[in-house]
């Protein structure tokens, strides 16, 4: 299947002047690089371009290289072997050599994902550098301190909606296309300042037909990060990066697996690669099943590693723009979104009332499911304790009839608790006034019921007595079944 070139690549700014709304940052980068070229390297020999994704950091590096005639050595800062590679280039002569080789510009992406040991080594290399080193990071404060101390920061600002529209219109002109104004505004609004995301959205909408634009964009609203994460996952061959890109996706692993499963066949084309990728996915699925059965959710990590790193390194991917599709199963289940909302609200209540982290709360939810299925009385207590509503109970037990039974029981408990609260308050006030309190009829009936000894208990006591009489020992009367001390007992003893 032929593919279009991704527009983010096709329209990557070639010159600094094409970058939208980053004038201040560009001025700083130019001054810094010119200092190198004038033979007096700046005091800080490294630069950190810091700012939100899709705002032009990488584009700046490529435009600078083109305008000033540098050869770019692009490395991923989180890669363990980056240090060796940097060392190789950092010492290379920085002026044009006799063989006419170009100057080198070292570009380290993801400086906020660097291992501490790698960071120390690279900090040492910065001191010795004879070539400019530019790094890029989304979170400046997560760049290791050793590196921050030795680098000059250049801030990239989040692009405005107007900037985004400007970028999109430029592409539409170049492609000779138009899209309705509302669609353009919608894309710009959802992009949250990320022009890369907006361009990808535009290409998705245009390639899928404008008719389904609203559907696609609606999906993006809720699943925004999964679209972006999967596009990055399918673009990399680096196992570590593949694991990192899904970290921010707010999804359970089995949901993520469905998304990857749906999109895999569009990414690989050689049968043996497809087989390898599916092999990794099925192993992930085995881990997920085992986690579910045993309650050992630590296995989720292995499952996620298999479905990301395992898939990313499975073979040769198609080049070009990858349109990410939502899994059909999720698309069909419109109520799954509502269900997810319910699950989240139940989880939040468990986390709050039981002081648990999300993972523990999830395990607890599984236990609750079993309790709600088999023990409606106990379930009713949980309903009161967690302050669940009927819809949440239905979600947990998965059956309307059962949910209503549990709900009814929980109402009774609440009623009793409320009455008891009122009664206790009444007793407290009366006790303060020194008045006698008569137990209510209900209290008396409850007490009588508890005083009654069951047939079973009687039989057991008789057996015991016979046994002891035979042995000639003195025995105590069988103990009456204990009753929890209440406020009444307490007042009675006074
Ligand atoms: N300021 C901008 N002006 C013009 N195009 C831009 C700008 N910012 C981003 N783009 C477009 O978005 C694409 C991605 O931008 P770029 O790779 O520079 O983002 P980045 O800031 O490096 O993001 P990340 O932090 O995720 O690496 C570019 O190829 C370009 O098409």
TrEMBL record:
One Pfam assignment: AAA
InterPro entries reported for this sequence: AAA+_ATPase, ATPase_AAA_core, P-loop_NTPase, Rep_factor-C_lsu, RFC_lid
GO molecular function: ATP binding; ATP hydrolysis activity; DNA clamp loader activity
Iron recorded as keyword: no
One GO BP: DNA replication
Subunit structure: Heteromultimer composed of small subunits (RfcS) and large subunits (RfcL).
Family of the protein in this entry: Belongs to the activator 1 small subunits family. RfcL subfamily.
Protein's name according to its UniProt entry: Replication factor C large subunit
